[in-house]
Amino acid sequence: MSFVRRILLISASIGGGHTAAARALEAACIERGLEVKHIDLLNYIPLPLRLVYRQTYFDLVRTAPDFIDWLGKNLDRHPTESKSRRQKLRARISRLISYYLPRAINEYQPDWIVHTHFIAPEILSTRGQRLKIPQAVVITDFAAHSLWLQPKIARYFVACEEVKVHLEMSGVDSERIAITGIPIDVRFAARESKEGARRTLGLSQSKDFLLFMASGLDEKVLPPLLRQLETLRYPLKAAVILGRSEELRDIAERELRPETTDVDVELIGYTKEMPRYMAAADLLVGKPGGLTTSEALAAGLPFAVVSPYPLQEEANTTFLLEHGVGFRVDPLTVFGYKVRGFLQDTERRERMVHTAQSLAKPNAARDIINAILESRPYPQG
C-alpha cells in the first residue's frame, strides 16, 4: 500500500458529466481527509480553441449523428490506423496546451492523478514521458472507446463487467481494472424513501410523478414530448428540470397548456435537489448520459430514453434496455402511449425498480478513492 495524501482531479467541461464525476470524487477525497485539487483541462487551452472544442461535438451529433457513429466505430475497429491518426492530431493539440498542464501538475505535486475525461491522459502519454506520478482513469459511461486507452495508466475504474471485458480484450491487465460504477453525488447512497422525498418536496403521495430531464432536449425533441402530456388523460404530476437554460424555459412555456391536460406540470430551473427529485419520481424521461443513468439506477428509477446521442449514450441505452430498467421512446410520437402503458403495468414497474436497485453503485466515488489509497504502485508503461 502506498502513502497517498494529495490527489489531482482532471476533468474537461464538455457536457456536465465529466465535471460532475470529478466533483463527486472531490467530495470523497475531502471525506477521507485528503488534499485534493480539481482542474478543468479546457482552462489550459486558448479560449478560441476551447469554445470550438466544446461546441463542435454537440453541433455534429445534432446535425450529423451518422458521421459521429461511423467515426467512433471506425476508431475501435481499426485501432492501429486510428492510433496513427490520433498521434498526428494529438501532437497538434499537445503543442498548444502541454506547457500549461504539466506545469500545473508539477506545481501541485500530487501523489495520484485521476482523470474523468480522455483528453488529458492522451496528451500526457505523449508530452509527459518523464511524468512519474501514477494516473487513474474513471470511464464515465457504460462503454469505453479506444481513446480512453493509454500506456501510462495505472488503474481503470469502470461502470460494469462489459467495460472491464472490453478493456481486457484490448490489452489492459485485469489487475488494473476495477468495477466500481460511475462516481455520482454521495447523497444518492442515502437512498431517501419515496414517501420522505415527496413529503419534503410537497408532492402528493398518491399521484404518479414523472421527472423530465430537459437538458440536451432541443426544440425538435422537447415540444412533441410536452404536447403529448395533453393526450395522456392520466392524473399525474410532472416536473421538468430546465437547468439554467432560458431557451428551454421559453420552449416549455410556449408548449404547455395546463387547461387542456390532467397532468400537473411544474417547470424547475437549476436545482441542487436532484437526488431528492429522483427518489420521489416513478419514471425519468431524458437523455441517458453516463451520470444520469447511474443516478437513476441509484434511485431505483426506471428510465424512458429519448434521443440518445451516438456512441456513448447509445451504449448507455443498450445497458438500460438489456437489463430491463428502461425503455426507448422512438419515434417521439409514441411517448404518451409508452408512458401510459408503463404507469398502468404495476408488475413491470416493480420489476424495473427492483432491478435498477440491484445494479446501482451509489458509493462509486468513495470506492474509487478507497481503491486508490490501497493501490500498489503499478509499473507505468
Which tags fit this structure?
381 residues; Rossmann fold; single chain; 16 helices; alpha/beta; six-stranded parallel β-sheet
Strand-helix topology:
Layout: E1 6-11, H1 17-31, E2 35-40, H2 47-63, H3 65-77, H4 79-97, H5 100-108, E3 112-115, H6 119-127, E4 135-138, E5 155-158, H7 161-169, E6 177-179, H8 194-201, E7 208-213, H9 222-228, E8 236-243, H10 246-255, E9 264-269, H11 274-280, E10 283-286, H12 290-298, E11 303-306, H13 312-322, E12 326-329, H14 335-344, H15 346-359, H16 364-374
Parallel strand pairs: 1-2, 1-3, 3-4, 4-5, 5-6, 7-8, 7-10, 8-9, 10-11, 11-12
Helix pairs in contact: 1-16, 2-3, 3-4, 4-6, 8-11, 9-10
Mind telling me the CATH superfamily name of the largest domain? Glycogen Phosphorylase B
Classification by helices and strands: alpha/beta
Mean pLDDT: 86
Q: What's the architecture of the largest domain in CATH terms?
A: 3-Layer(aba) Sandwich
